[in-house]
Amino acid sequence: MHLGEAIGTACGAFAATNIDDIFVLVTFFAESATNKRMSPLNITIGQYVGFTAITVISMIGFGISLALPSEPIGFLGFLPMLLGFWALLDVILSRGGGDDDEQQHQDEHLQMTHATRIKIILKVATITLINGGDNIGTYIPLFSQTRGAEIAVYVVVFYIGVGVWCVAAWLIMKQRHILMVAQKYAEKFIPFLYMGLGVFVIVKSDCYPWSIDHINRKLHSHPGQLILALCTTGFLLISIGIMFAIRWRQRQKEIAAESEAENGAVNATELVEVGSRASNEGRQLDRDSSRVPEKPNTADTSLASTILTSEDDKRQIPP
């Protein structure tokens, strides 16, 4: 295969297996409009890390002669679905606040630590890997039909394509009207985007038909649909219940901390007001004392009166 043919095949394979990644990346960039920790750089790094994992798994699958089925990977679509439920609980249980609460929320997002950055990158990488079941299923047979040099061309083209996809999703979110809507409503819609992403991954991977078929082959009564329905319902109910309990406890602690902070602020304000009143009263007393007229010296007044009287008497005596 010539270089041009290899590049064309790689571009076609990447486009066919990563069209849905535009939706995933737009979801991440929409979240970055309200979550400063979800920066474009962290999203891009996470996307590359996840795609690297997909490539490595594809190489391993190629090495073990297609022994790795791609369908079961689709069950990992429950992870973004549960992330969406967690974000929805956060929206429901959070108290609506004013500008101060929004400013505090933004300040918390601005506090980026190394551990937080790693968590964001791993989050993006994990969802990218989960959504890569079709990539693995496509790349393994593709690699099996090529030679070493062609595989290198494929990998290089794939990595360039990841960068192009990230830039395209970022440009979509940079449109002013899209960005304004995202900043206003993203926090409320992000949970449903994640849940939709999880459903999309599960449906696209055909993990349920694949599992039902395997169960029915082993059991003569063909209970595959019933077994998966019960397992899915139980798993979701238990997971959502645990998340609700955890989030409820966290919210109660936050409310208690906010109440203590408000009480402390009120006490500090009262102390300041008392001190201010005392200072004002002290200044008022100083002004009043400065306005009191000084009493004349009675001794000096009596002496002056005696002198004036004696002089008048001398004038009245005839010579």
From TrEMBL:
Official protein name in the record: Cadmium resistance transporter
Q: Where is the composition biased (Basic and acidic residues)?
A: 283-294
- Record's keyword annotation contains Coiled coil: no
Composition bias of kind Polar residues appears in: 298-309
Q: Membrane spanning segments where? A: 6-29, 41-67, 73-93, 152-173, 185-203, 223-246
Disordered, as annotated region: 276-319
Q: Which domain of life is it from?
A: Eukaryota
The alphabetized UniProt keywords are: Membrane, Transmembrane, Transmembrane helix
